[in-house]
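Chapter summary example.
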Amino acid sequence: MNDLSDPPPYFQAHVFVCCNLRPDGHRRGSCAARGSEKLKDYMKARAKELGIPGIRVNQAGCLDRCEFGPAIVIYPEGVWYKAETTADIDEILAAHLVEGGRARRLMLTEKDVVAKG
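The structure predicted for these 117 residues follows.
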């Protein structure tokens, strides 16, 4: 709940790209092993090139969506994406952060959750 005395958000959008690295052969895999660090670097540079205001792209540790990675989450909406290529990053930037919509094809949804047990 937002308290009326809260300061305004520092960023309009905060993007977290999982760059967690697990050992080779780990049953869940890892986003870094799937190239997330290069994608994060590309996303930061491309967002700057496009002049998207009020955005921050950050490296994150494990976001616990390893099986579906490289995983990205964008706040304040809390929308999750899987990006495997720079074209995917371009699509997310354009659809979500420029146009204010969603890159539906790349979204992780409730179907992309591994049962805990």
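To summarize the output: The two ends are 31 Å apart (CA to CA).
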